[in-house]
Amino acid sequence: MVRPFALLGFSAYGALALCAALGPDAARPLGFLCLGLACAIALGRAVLGFFWGRRGIWTENELSGETPRALSAFRSLFWAAAAIALAGAACVLYLLAWQQAAPWQGLDGEKLQVRAQVLDYPEERYHRYYYKLRVEALGQEEGALEAVGPFTLRLSSTMPLACDPYDRVECLVTFRAFEEGGGLYSTRNARLADGFQAGAYLSQYEGIAVERDSAVSPGEMLVQLRHQVGRAMDRLLPRREAGLLRAMVLGDSGGVSEEDMGRFRQLGVSHILVVSGLHMTILAGFMQFLLCRFPIRKAVRNALTALVLVLFLALSGFQPSACRGAAMYGVLLLADSTGRRADSLNSLGLAVLLVCLFAPFSGGDLGFALSVLATLGIVVLYRPIYQVLAGKRLAGLARRLWKPVAASLAVTAAALLGTFPVQLAVFGGLPLLTPLANLLLVFPSTLLLYASFCGAFLSLLPATAPLAAPFVWAAGWLARFLLGAAGFLAQWKGTFLPLTGEVALAVVIGLLLLLMAAGLVGQDRPLRAVLGGCMAVLAVFGGVFQGWLTQGTVIFAAPAAEESSCVVMIQDGKAAVLSFGGYRTGAVAELLQRYRVTQVEALCLPDRGPEAREAAVQVLEEYGAKQLVLPGDAYVGRDLELALGDALPVFLEGGDSVSLWAGVSAQVLPQWEGLLLSVHGVEVLVEWGPGQSRNCGLLFTNQPQTRVNAPLSVWQTDGIIGENGQGLAFSPKGEGAVLPVEEGCAEVSVSPEGTVSVRREG
Q: Is the dihedral of CA 494, 495, 500, 502 positive or negative?
């Protein structure tokens, strides 16, 4: 059975993902290759039809109604050519979209005056404000502005601007190109998928001109509507619960703390926090349940459901994963209205195809990839997994109680299997508590969405706004339960199965072989059960063996936020925080959760700013610490004293050394400009102050004036001054340097043998 939309949709998505991974330079030859191959297949099909058509092997058997194999193969050639041709067209679309963004990416480092229209309220993260602007004119600092083809700019600012959405601003900015490193799901691909064509930060906070726009556009009305709903949540609920609701309903995750985000990510249920196909399914089911109570026709009921889905899409900002879910559910509603049976795989392919046609950069969107693969896994694998879990031995009440549990576990297992390749490549393993977390959290999150939807829509009108309070209050209690349950589960040890390097490859190959064997044995249930047990044993053994191999390895983890210089050193479950960073106060806690740290040996606090102190207090309260290392003239303060408990701070001057744990010590550089560590024979330099010219094997820095005298460097700035053999030169990338992606971290491991390896996490 040929599923044309599934074939076309996934071929287009595969081509876009390949273009995002290889870069725009590969899009042109890849597109020509696909189009040429499609033409060759179409030509071959035509030749076969011309020479062999008269023999009758290509015609239907009208008496038996059977389709000859030759005719079936002939039709398959047609769909193969169509799929390959569409893949080539997708490459062309990607190339055209990139050509629109490339000129503005080339402005990296340029300081220019811009006139732009503000498209939304700012996203507040890491004590910074990120604006979405549509740039209309550019010019030099002292020159006249010239109109340009509009492009979308992501503007970073340390202070909020005195403007509202759809106002026009004129300000001085410094352009910053999106980082290219990180593979398929790099910062550049993520930003392009979000609709940004360039990045910049505000260079001057004085002289910003704001022009109010008296006309009200539909886009402004939509933004104000989202803002009104968000303000209602903030007014009626505590900040933490309101942030969770804003993420689930409005697609605004800025109010979710990094600690909470890390917990949901650790459990493998971060899809609850983003507007996705799950939310579309819940909302559509809710609308169908309500409308079935009224005597209206099925077509009208489905049309009203589709209208509500579109309104919710607009309210959430048209997230790609949500668009995929809405498109898929729209196909199902259309089939139901016309009396036809919709094919789930075909519907998914059509939804993916529509997203790819309208968003050529979606191939590099990690969230969209996880959403598509999870849905694909559910469509293909849910039924056989459910049949195994449900069984036929239970009867009566036990069977009725077990069936929804089995269904939930089957959905989770199918989604995990579908996303396994991406989970392995990006995160280096699998969360083991995902089935249990889904079982405990998905149903409350469904009730939370129901209450949130009712509260959100009732709060839109002044006459019905008072009726929204009970629903928002109920949503707040459900949000509190979700946050508490996620925090409780995230505290469990061994919740993540690491699979990296050769171990991962061996485990994956073994699981695939066992899966193929399970498919070949057919209905032999005892043998299939034995093979399933072997799969479970292999997966668990892989994790245990991986832990044994990495014993004694020291890991340096650096979050990939541009504004943070946070560095955490981890070894066998214990950690030392070497730098807290500047703006991203929750990055340390997120890293400690990600690497399942059970004991914090030391905290180094060179930064006297309030953000770093806040992060230090948070870590001390949750993990404790044996040492708090401070400069000799530092002021401890009441907040740190209370968090320290019985532990005493350690005051050091430049040149002093401190023992972090057995075999690992650090020397404080003069003027507290950094730490110099010796780890398994590798000298590691963590810079805090102005650049050093000291030799080392591994360098962590966020200083733009650093002399790179290290074989391997990790940093988060525009560039580094490095030795190129001919003296000092500006090196935006640097030879042998690691550029961390923004949504994740850079991981540098030093083995007991002194071998240094690098891994990126997205």
A: positive
Span 416-472, pLDDT tens digits: 777 777 776 676 666 777 777 877 887 788 888 778 777 777 776 677 777 777 887
Query: Do 565 and 614 share a domain, yes or no?
Result: yes
Distance CA 368, CA 12 (A): 14
In the chain, the amino acid numbered 16 is: L
Note whether 373 and 387 are same-domain residues: yes
Domain membership of residue 490 as a residue range: 221-498
> Both tokens of residue 734?
């640097």
Measure the CA–CA gap between 6 and 3, rounded to whole angstroms.
5
206 and 247 in a common domain? no
Rounded Cα distance, 581 and 562, in Å = 10
Please give the distance of CA 424 from its chain centroid, rounded to a whole number.
Answer: 14
Are residues 236 and 276 both part of a single domain? yes
pTM over the 0.90 mark: no
Q: Say yes or no: 16 and 43 in one domain.
A: yes
Query: Using an 8 Å Cβ cutoff, are 362 and 193 in contact?
Result: yes
CA angle 314/315/321 to nearest 5° reads 65
Q: How many domains does the chain divide into?
A: 5
Q: CA-CA distance, 362 to 31, in Å (whole number)?
A: 17
Q: Encoding tokens for residue 400?
A: 């009725």
Query: Nearest 5 degrees, angle CA 285-CA 286-CA 289?
Result: 85
* Residues 624, 359: Cα–Cα separation, whole Å: 47
pLDDT in tens, 711-741: 777 764 444 444 333 333 333 334 444 444 3
Contacts of 45 (CB under 8 A, 6+ apart): 74, 77, 78, 81
Residue 109 makes CB contacts below 8 A (sequence gap 6+) with 174, 175, 176, 718
Phi, psi for residue 196 in degrees, rounded to 5? -95, 140
Show the tokens assigned to 660. Answer: 């972090």
